[in-house]
Amino acid sequence: MAEITAAAVMALRDKTGLPMMECKKALLESGGNTEQAVEWLRKQGVKTQSMRADRETTTGRLAVYADPAKGVGSMIELKCESAPVAGSPEFKALAEDMATTLALGPGAATPAALLAQKSHAHPDRTLEDLKNDLFNRMREVFDLARICRIDAPCGGYAHHDGTKAALVEIAGKTSSPEAAAIAKDVSMHVVALAPQALTKENLDPEVVAKEREILTEAARAEGKPENIIAKMIEGRLRNFFSQCVLLEQPFVKDDKQTVGQLAAAAGLQIKRMENWKLGS
To answer: Using CA atoms, how far apart are residues 86 and 59, in angstroms rounded to an integer?
Structure first.
C-alpha cells in the first residue's frame, strides 16, 4: 500500500475543500493517486447526494444575466437547504455561472439540460460537476428549480439577497447608451412594485370587470347620478391601472412619469416581463 503523506492529504484538501479524513481515505482507496482520489471523492459525493435527495430545499438564490447589446437575458432559481449556504460566495458564484451559461450558451429547455452543459466560468467542467463538487464541500442538497431565457434585448435585476428578480424584454433603440440602464431600472421597478400585468389589455378581464363592479357600486352608494357614473368609473379605473399595470405605474425612481412614458422618451418599448420570487 502506498504511503499517504500529510502533505499529500493537505494538497488534496486544498484542491477539493473536503475534510482531511475524507481526503486521506480517498488517497488510500486510490493508491496515492491524486486524480483518482478526486474522482473517488466525486463518486462518493454523488452517492451521498442521492441518499439526501428527499431533503427540503427551502431557500436559495435567483440569479440574472442581461445584456441588451448581446440580445439575450436569462434567470435561474437555485435552491438549497439553509440561509448560510444560500448567502455564501461559492453558492452565489454557482448561481451566477448558471445564469450566464444559460444566456451565452446554446440555451436549454430544462434545468437538467442546462446542468449538462459546460460552465461559462469553467469551460472544462459541466455545471452538474460544479454543483456536485459544491455539494461535497457543503453537504447540502442543491436543486436547480427553474430557468428562463429570453432571446431578445433585455434588462435584468436581482435583489441583493437573491430572493426576488426580474427580466424585462425591450425593443426599439436598444443600442442607445441609455437603453441598458433604463432596462435595468425598469426591472428593479418590477421587483419593487410587482405589477400584475404589462399592459391594461394583459390584465385578466374578470379582474377588470370585478373592479368596475366595485367602483360602480361605490359611486351609487355615494348618491351619484347614473348618467355620470360611467364617466366617473373610467377615471377611477385609471387609478386602478396605475397600481397594477407596469406601463401605467408611476416610475419608482421618478413618480412624475409612468414606466411607459420613461421607456417611450428613450425610444424603447417594453415587450415582456418575468418577475420571480424565490420558491413561488
So the answer is: 7
Among the listed residues 275, 248, 278, 274, the one whose alpha carbon sits nearest the alpha carbon of residue 263: 248
Three-class HEC string of 58-104: CEEEEEEEEEHHHCEEEEEEEEECCHHHHCCHHHHHHHHHHHHHHHH
* CATH classification code of 59-197+266-277: 3.30.479.20
- Average pLDDT score over residue span 5-11: 78
| For residue 222, pLDDT beyond 90 | no
Cell numbers describing residue 18: 473536503
Half-sphere exposure at residue 203, Cβ-oriented, CA atoms within 13 angstroms: 21
For residues 157-183, average pLDDT: 96
Cell of 2: 502506498
Tell whether the model's pLDDT for residue 188 goes beyond 90. Answer: yes
What is the rounded end-to-end Cα distance, in angstroms, of the chain?
53
Report which of residues 89 and 230 the model is more confident about.
Answer: 89
Domain borders along the chain are 6-51, 59-197+266-277
Task: List b or e across 187-197, with b for residues whose CB sees 16 or more CB atoms inside 10 angstroms.
Answer: bbbbbebebeb
Cβ pair 144, 98 in contact under 8 A: yes
| Average pLDDT of the residues of the chain | 89
CATH hierarchy code of domain 6-51: 1.10.8.10
Tracing cell 455561472 back to the chain, one arrives at 97
Least confident of 92-106, 147-161, 199-213: 199-213
- Least Cα distance to 161 among 91, 57, 253, 74 occurs for 91
Question: Where does residue 91 rank: exposed (0-12), middle (13-18), buried (19+ CB within 10 A)?
Answer: buried
Nine-digit cell string for 150: 429570453
Beta-bridge partner residues of 80? 59
What single letter denotes the amino acid at residue 196? Q
